[in-house]
Amino acid sequence: MSEDIWAAQDTHPDAIEAALRELLRERHAANEALAPARVLNLIVVVDREWKGEIANRLERAGRYHASRTVLCAVEEGRKTLDAVATVSYDEPKGSALGVMHESVEIDLGTEHLHALQTICDPVLVSEIPTVVWSPHGHPEAVDALCPLMDVMLLDSDDIDDAVEAFARAERLRKHAYIVDLAWLRTTPWRERLAATFDLPERLATLREIEELEIRHRETSLASALLLAGWLSSRMHWDHSHLRLWDGRVARNGHATNGGVVVSLYIAEQEAPGLAGVTVACADGSSLSLQRGQGGLDAEERTAEGDTHAWKILGASRGEGGILGEGIRQALLRDSTYLPALQAARELCPA
Amino acid sequence: MSATSPLSAADTENPLVEGLERLPVHPTALVIFGATGDLAHRKLLPALYNLAHEGQLPERFEVIGVGRRTHEDEEFRDTLVDSIERFSRRRPDSNVMEGLLNEARYVQGSFDDDQIYSELVRALDEFDQSAGRPLDRVFYLSTAPEFFPLIAGKLGAVGLNHADRSSVRIVIEKPFGYDLASARTLNAQLLEVFEEHQIFRIDHYLGKETVQNLMAMRFANALFEPVWNRNYIDHVQITAAEDIGIGGRAGYYEHAGALRDLVQNHMLQLLARLTMEPPTAFDADRLRDEKLKVLEAIVPPSVDEVESMAVRAQYAPGVVGGVEVPGYREEEGVARYSRTETYAALRLHVSNWRWAGVPFYLRTGKRLSRKLTEIAVILKQIPHVALQSSGSVGIQANQLVFTVQPDEGVSVSIGAKIPGTRMRIRPVNMEFRYGTSFLSESPEAYERLILDAMRGDATLFTRNDEIEALWGIIDPILEAWAHDKSSTIPQYESGTLGPREANALLEPGQMWRRL
Prior knowledge:
Chain A is built from 11 helices and 16 strands. Chain A is α/β, with parallel strands linked by helices. In chain A, strands 1, 2, 3, 4, 5, 6, 7, 8 and 9 form a 9-stranded mixed sheet that branches. In chain A, strands 11-12-10-13-14-15-16 form a 7-stranded mixed sheet, with helices on one face. Chain B has a 9-stranded mixed sheet. A 6-stranded parallel sheet of chain B has the order 3-2-1-4-5-6, sandwiched between helices.
């Protein structure tokens, strides 16, 4: 990977944009087979002291990277803007086209946040979607960027209190389409449950689910609640609140209203996200999926009491994969997230 | 929570599927006939691995390989591991690999041996027992075509062509038939054993993203439809060029040739998708109905007309990629005076209201200057040139080019002013490349096709009437060439654009696009 770099201190957005344009022009003139990628902009707002870690995460997102990334590194007390603009590319071989990606790192102060839109807007590529990701909070920055953003990338598992996390998502969805990494962590489980119940003999039992148990990493409560919310919203269950809530995390929470019992359990696991799901039906049948090596360990108990155990294949994406997947999802639309979010909120204490 | 709540629309619909990118696939046992062959190792097994890696295989998935080579189960699995490691598009995860191949079985024998079918019955029943439910069954025939009717018949004889509580499908690789008569015969033989909805005739080009994107481009954009007809399009060139020779495939290629190998299937499928009318719904049968209509509008040439609308040739020694290569007749296994064509070019017409008078040029060849598959739609020149000025290459006809491989994408060439004080025009390209626009890696075509076959979605497969229509177009050309034993077969130097004789197909003012 080659890079062309420009840097300046005490600069302003127009100069950054002009520098990027010149870098692109020069590189394209040197090799006409190089063209800028034009898919989406990504604005990332981070604490300056952690920007390296975020930059690493973005790098590990792999092929799902933005065309232009604007990394706003916030530092208390800073009064001016310093910037580094980079155009990255691999020299294409033969007659192939090569693609250039652009990134800008802007060091700025907290006093700039309320007008962050005026700093980012001139630097963005027009006519393509803009995704905003603020992993270290900075709600003021996010509010300022609302007019610019088409997609808000967030992670409801980042906030200990799921109630607060979901309220944030609900608030932001009024301004932009939400891509929630906590929701994306449920994707393999939703796909697997959908496939499982697609069999005609199991489809009939969907309406007879009596118990849903979700096992999750301690820091992935939001993912667990979203999975429960998804099933609840797809099946139009009435909702009641989880009990045994200690104010921050629902530990071994149960919700019941004479119908489906939803239980959440904390599981010891290194990977973020869900550890397992068990669905039990009125006829005594149950299906359990548990994260294992090389896929999910499945166990089914039939209504007659027979049990079967097998492996459902699939490799883990890893957390680097989830961020890349989040960026990719910014181009798609999933109509089932919002109903799941609303149902998940209703599962939480009022 | 209440458990007695309404499901969506109908009780048979799965309400959990909405919003998912990956659709459910039911538990399946896949039997690969020809499991030790080249296609299985280079394409099928790596495709299965990638599906497993991404969690796209059904919850229960079993593989049985059938072949003539002697292998124990363990030895067979080792060959699969080796193939996956060599040909998978991603680095294999050992746990997933082990899970995929752990229970893989191998049944050894010749395809006419009843014993192997009895063993298949036994193995498939065991899988069902182990799963506690009947698995769908997919029989994939990755064998030489002469075995297709034999295998189908044997499967029927032991009752493996149907199942009471699961689906049974058969996937047939190309070539489907050798000519129209053999294709009809093969269809009839298969339909004696299987129903049409169970038969999946593969054309792996249909699984490629760019080929599917033809549909999106044409039917999801208002921009193109107004010009998609004889009033604006001058001609179309469809090219499938390869820079490689026949490799070690003389045994197959000597009897096939370029026309059968690529034109009859892939290229005519591209032509059909380019020229078909919009289907009223995007389901398998309505899509294929429209393709059939346009294929039937291509009037096959009479034998006498072939000479003026088709050219064949063979590659001669030359240099490709800086390396000297032998000519076709010097390749191992090729007859010294072989008349098999390694290059074919045709001029076809679609005789309907939309396309009357527009020539469609198809060309394919081995050992050409580079590997490229594309569809180029060349529009007519503007009627009046007022902008022409000296010092520019001038105004050239707009072109819309779909590149299928190696670099999938679409480009549109338009005329733009060269910066300066004078009005000088040069063509510039607007490019759309899959890799730069969707942040996604296109899955291999076989991954998509295998999954669709397991799901019973025939949209990307060829129907029986369709395949006969495809052969109907080619048959007179094959017949004419088979009977013409007197004229010499033109030779073209390897590493070039092909024979000069192909230029005679074009109308005045037209040129073959550079590769």
